[in-house]
Structures are given as C-alpha cells and as structure tokens.
Amino acid sequence: MASDNDKRRETRIPVDLWIEAAREGELYYQRASNLSVGGAFFVQTIPLPMGTRVSLKFTLPADTHEIVCEGDIVSAKELGMGVQFVGMVPADRTRLEKLIGKLSAKGAAAKK
Prior knowledge:
Elements: H1 4-7, E1 13-23, E2 26-35, E3 39-43, E4 53-59, E5 66-77, E6 80-86, H2 90-111
Antiparallel strand pairs: 1-2, 1-4, 2-3, 3-6, 4-5, 5-6
C-alpha cells in the first residue's frame, strides 16, 4: 500500500495561507500548511468526508490576483484534510507553478 508521500507527484512547499472554502451555503476559512500545483493541506480543522467538493478562493503571497477553483477532499486526518484542486484555469496554474518553483529553489539553496 502506498503512503501519502508516495502518491505525491508534485513539489510541495510549506506555507501559512488562508483559503476560503464554501460548501452548501457555508463558508469556512481554512489554514493551509503546504501547497502544490495540485492541491493543499488544511490544518487545525475538522475534516470533511473524502470525496466532498468545495469551492475555493485564495490569493498567493505577494500577489493580488484571486484564484478561484473547486477542490475535492482527498485525505482526511484527525485535525486536517488534503484538497485536490479541480478546474483551475491555466493562468492561475502557471502563477502557482512560478511561486512553487521560486520558493522551492530558495529552500534548496538554504539547505546547502
């Protein structure tokens, strides 16, 4: 059986980012502890059932453009959940790729 780390194909970066998540008329602000091009992990939250779809809105650090997409809950732990981005427009995906590339390069340089 593959572990969560084995399933990850994309680079993840640590963040402290608030993401707005809406579902069935309810609005929550979720704190993301890490981010990849494909999704995020929300910490310190009671997880929703796996397979639940939520509407997401967030702004990347040092950016003013709001990213809007859907997200599917793909993992649930005691006080956290993983969300996979769905339907992100290509320009927003590129924005996210650039941020992750920049921050992961800085992290790699700091470890040397």
